[in-house]
């Protein structure tokens, strides 16, 4: 596991704005805690195409894009208010040409996106095995899967996900972020 990484956060103001928004909106836009770690993963692998589930206000989409200056990012968000604010934040960060925010439920939007992705990041609420299978199927060999909120998965999904990623012929552990709540694996 590689934990030698540059940890500076490229968008700390966006993280702070997300915290303020969640308090005022009373919504589920809990911000990712380690944008620097996420940007470092992006920097290490330089993915050409990135997929994110759970845009909130655009903080992690901007971190992923900042780590890989050649990357195009598709990010999905179901709350229209979050989508409006995220698009404004992304424009303010001068990243609108590389980040596309898709409004809708993950399960509805995912099948409308074509092709494969070099890095996929799940940061919706609780990850489910079904969603993880759809996401990881979009990665070629060498693709990176980053999953947040592992501790929120149901006990059954959690057991199945652990056994899926424990298969060393299919996955290699790359890094652990957020004190173990988020893990990054590389597909063989
Ligand atoms: C934990 S927050 C994402 C935080 C974000 N990645 C950041 O910048 O720190 C989860 C977001 O996913 C959205 N979400 C959760 N489940 C969803 C679903 N099934 N379809 C679309 N959006 C969803 C929520 O509205 C919320 O904004």
Features:
7 helices; 37% helix; 20% strand; 188 residues; globular; seven-stranded mixed β-sheet; 7 strands; binds S-adenosylmethionine; alpha/beta; single chain; Rossmann fold; disordered N terminus
Overview of this protein structure:
Helix content is 37%, strand content 20%. The chain is of the alpha/beta class and 188 residues long. Strands 3-2-1-4-5-7-6 form a seven-stranded mixed sheet, with helices on both faces. Strand 1 (49-53), helix 3 and strand 2 form a beta-alpha-beta unit. Helix 2 packs parallel to helix 3 (59-67). The longest helix has 14 residues, at 12-25. The relative contact order is 0.15. Bound molecules: S-adenosylmethionine. S-adenosylmethionine (SAM) binds next to helix 3 and strand 2.
